[in-house]
Amino acid sequence: MDVAREAFGPDTVDFYTIATSRQTKGRGRLGRVWTTLPDHSLAFTVCVKDPTAEQLPLVTALSIAEGLQDVAKESFDIKWPNDVLKGGLKVAGILTEKHQRGFLVGVGVNLTKPENIPADFPGGFALKGPQPPQQVLETLLAALQARVNQLRAQGWGALAVAYTQKCITLGQTVHWHTGKKVVEGQALGLDSSGALELKTDEGIRLVTGGEIIAQAL
């Protein structure tokens, strides 16, 4: 993402992308480190020009889940706001950062399982067998570009139903980690901005940040 930030200039085309199969400084939400397995992962950053709606992280998650489904011919889920899961395990992480010319959209995907995987590796893998990384990248970028352009033209309302259908957080009892305390509640749905509506003992709370952890996980 740092390389893309430096490359994002006034003449950069919309959806300009830098990709690699060996990332050394991956990072995620809340200051976390995103670990990639060399030659078994795909990491890329997309330069999205002009101010885009605040739902860009959610739309990116939707497009990556849909793109991976096209490649793997299997269903993928979303954990609010933008983790992509397969079988309950995280297979793709997303980080969006504001830039003076738009947004940087960073995506990391665990593609295939290596033979000697670390015992403590926390995630899952999107594909059962190897596929050309360039083909996977092109599919994911096509899905991202289509959904972002739809967001620009029609607004979040046009994508909200597709997102909620894939979001397994909804309906669950969850713990909301705010950084200062943990709030328990039921994830009811999303409001018109994409914020998570959480039913707590103190009433309905709108969640726009922090970490959501399902009680069952």
Features:
single chain, 217 residues, alpha+beta, BirA Bifunctional Protein, domain 2, SH3 type barrels, six-stranded antiparallel beta sheet, five-stranded antiparallel beta sheet, 4 helices, 11 strands
Number of strands: 11
Q: Strand order within the widest sheet?
A: 1-2-6-5-4-3
Rg, nearest Å: 17 Å
Oligomer: single chain
CATH superfamily of the largest domain: Bira Bifunctional Protein, Domain 2
What is the number of independent domains? 2
Separate helix tally: 4
Largest sheet: 6 strands, antiparallel
The CATH architecture of the largest domain can be given as 2-Layer Sandwich
Task: Give start-end ranges of low-pLDDT stretches.
Answer: none
- The CATH topology of the largest domain comes to BirA Bifunctional Protein, domain 2
Report the helical percentage.
25-40%
Strand content range: 25-35%
Architecture overview:
With 217 residues, the protein is an alpha+beta fold. The protein folds into two domains: 2-166, Bira Bifunctional Protein, Domain 2 (BirA Bifunctional Protein, domain 2, 2-Layer Sandwich), CATH 3.30.930; 173-214, SH3 type barrels, CATH 2.30.30.100. The chain is built from four helices and eleven strands. It has helices at 2-7, 56-72, 133-154, 157-166; strands at residues 16-20, 41-49, 77-79, 83-86, 89-99, 102-110, 173-177, 182-190, 196-200, 203-207, 211-214. The strands form two sheets. It has a six-stranded antiparallel β-sheet. A five-stranded antiparallel β-sheet has the order 10-9-8-7-11, with no helix packed on it. Strand 8 (182-190) and strand 9 (196-200) form a beta hairpin. Helix 2 packs across helix 3. The model has no long low-confidence stretch (mean pLDDT 90).
